[in-house]
Amino acid sequence: MSFYDVPDGVEIRGRYDHQFAQILTRDALQFVAGLQREFQGQVRFALECRREAKKRYNSGGSPGFDPATRFIRESNWKCATVPPAVADRSVEITGPVERKMIINALNSGAKVFMADFEDALSPSWENLMKGHVNLRDAVNQTITFHDQARNRVYKLNDTIAKLFVRPRGWHLPEAHIIIDGEPAIGCLVDFGLYFYHNHAMYRSAHGAGFGPFFYLPKMENSREARIWNNVFERAERTAGIERGSIRATVLIETLPAVFQMDEILYELRDHSVGLNCGRWDYIFSYIKTFQAHPDRLLPDRVQVGMTQHFMRCYSDLLIRTCHRRGVHAMGGMAAQIPIRDNPAANEAALELVRKDKLREVRAGHDGTWAAHPGLIKPILEVFTSNMAGKANQIQTAAREDADAITEEDLVQMPRGTRSLEGLRLNTRVGIQYLAAWLTGTGSVPLYNLMEDAATAEISRVQNWQWIKYGAVLNGDGVKIRVTPELFAKVVEEEIERIKREVGLEKFTRGRYQEAGKIFAKQCTTPELDDFLTLDAYNLIVVHHPKTSARL
């Protein structure tokens, strides 16, 4: 029997595979263990601070600008100069770290591909380790994929997108790797293994002396950015590369973080390449932050777009903050996917994407996200035709008008209506996403949109909020109050609809009934779970007999 060769204090409980062993080397695991041992206490403190903030919000409080850090917001300072290799980020594509996806995304014509270990990936042992093998091969430009069903071999073009990697959030463990008797911190595993194996090749072949590049998710406070900065500095020292080589874009996707954007950039000022509007998670966070506020029941999620006042202010303030500090202000996700069997509907969807991206570029964003390669060309056309031939708008779109945005602007209730169809859609999307996630898929096409954990989270917390406070819905012109009994009936009916839509064979093979039970439980629990995936994670952990040894 083969074993992983591990350093003292480290145990691997995932399946042994000779390819995985090339990633899980003794030296790489020693590097990850060093990160965990140095920063575990800081991470625990940051998560405890989140819990304390949650108590304040649940007691009637609201997030706001911190008076103690006003000097950072009001001082004139800049982040380090943007590396030339990533000056143009006009359109970025995102997706999980799957082999075929990586090749298609790097070849898509996008300027950047964000390879995702977070919301677009179900973090099974197989997915994670294959993802690291795939990224190593991508950085080495040796990655290929043989699609046997199509008898087609995929390989990289001569010109490819710049690779960014998104590790998991601070809150997620990695239960297959045990360090000093405790599960590893998931994001330190993701970052550590990728950085250790790829920093040298990435800097020389892709980053023109800079890199690797990262996206950082789910932060709520600048103290969490400080931990990442310290992680980066330790990694740079260990690798013997220049301070400031590693660069990262932070997703502003929690409501508390919008009040900390200057402070987050300040903590990462030597390692920052901007902020991004993670708008779906941001809506999820708005509901979660105000979960104890019955006066903040949101309308149907499809009505909460970037034209809502609080969302527009969030975007405008992010642009102002980033450009004042000399870095990119990235726009939000276009989740549409091509509707191949209906050209008219496809063109209508593309027109919505164009309008959304035109709004972003005219507001001052330097680039934006797309979920599908079919969107790259039309989005690129919108951005390039509105940026006067420049790689970005950092120097040309100051947005000083956004200085007038207040705390009240950033938390203003969105306007709209709540409907029974909204409750049904939330339920249908949530159950189907969770069923896919449980079977190893984290990025799921549903109703012509590419859904990931963020949209499933909105569905879950909005249902919970409506049930908790007995929201009144408009159903076929009749006012209906949401009750646990009504919701149970909706779950039952939507599972039957899912069965009809996907077909009996797929439904039987899938985990839809199990997903329905989990989703219903999370929507009706007295205390709202912080994350859908955190609660469900143990259902995809598979421990194997002893697969590691100190040789």
From TrEMBL:
It catalyses: glyoxylate + acetyl-CoA + H2O = (S)-malate + CoA + H(+). It is found in: Glyoxysome. GO terms for cellular component: glyoxysome. InterPro entries: Malate_synth_C_sf, Malate_synth_sf, Malate_synthA, Malate_synthase_CS, Malate_synthase_TIM, MS_C, MS_N, MS_N_TIM-barrel_dom. The active site is at R166 (proton acceptor), D452 (proton donor). Keywords: Glyoxylate bypass, Glyoxysome, Peroxisome, Transferase, Tricarboxylic acid cycle. Residues 162-412 form the Malate synthase TIM barrel domain. Pathway: Carbohydrate metabolism; glyoxylate cycle; (S)-malate from isocitrate: step 2/2. Coiled coil: none annotated. Pfam families: MS_C, MS_N, MS_TIM-barrel. Residues 420-540 form the Malate synthase C-terminal domain. One of its GO terms (biological process) is tricarboxylic acid cycle. It is an enzyme of class 2 (transferase). Its EC number is 2.3.3.9. It comes from the Eukaryota. One of its GO terms (molecular function) is malate synthase activity. The keyword Transport does not apply. The keyword Heme does not apply. Its main location: other. SUPFAM superfamilies: Malate synthase G. Residues 8-70 form the Malate synthase N-terminal domain. Belongs to the malate synthase family. This is Malate synthase. It comes from Rhynchospora pubera.
